[in-house]
Amino acid sequence: MAETQLYLIRHGQTDWNVRAMLQGRTDIPLNxxxxxxxxxxxxxxxxxxxxxxxxxxxxxxxDTASLVTGWPKERISPDRRLIEIAFGPYxxxxxHALGPGFAAFFTDPPAYRPPEGAESLESALERTGDFLAxxxxxxxxxxxxxxxxxxxxxxxxTAALGNPLDQFWAVNLDNCRVAVLTRDEAARGGxxxxxxxxxxxxxxxxxxxx
Length: 210
Description:
210 residues
């Protein structure tokens, strides 16, 4: 049987990304650079056949999935398990102004405590882990594109690889960068990371707190 593979892609750039503002579940669209990034990703993935495409329901992820695959959005399956982590009252804010309590989100994930109305990292790991189980059960031997967001996709990677929370940002996917998970029941989290063009740990810290 063919391997089950998930191509995880972070959405293209938005104006809030440029300004290093926390987006969370605020529905910010792609900017022109983001759309161009998605078209460049389409070229890089031109040789990959996708059996199904799933996306966060937020427009920046749905539009990225559509541009990357050429599929109309009606053919793409929106899934709320892929939505970005909610930052509650911090959305639209500059992380530099939020103090050391929020800085832990990037510098010490196990110590992060979300404000009221925001989502915990543990909750994000649970729901993205549920999506991983769903994909393994419902798409054996298939290749999926999964379009999402910085924090939510890193939660999925953490769950898939069975990593501790202090390795939450280890892969570090920038806009329209891709990580490939291959199903491996013998692996610690049930998946192997078989490809990634992420920049490695540290880039998020530099961008949002540097």
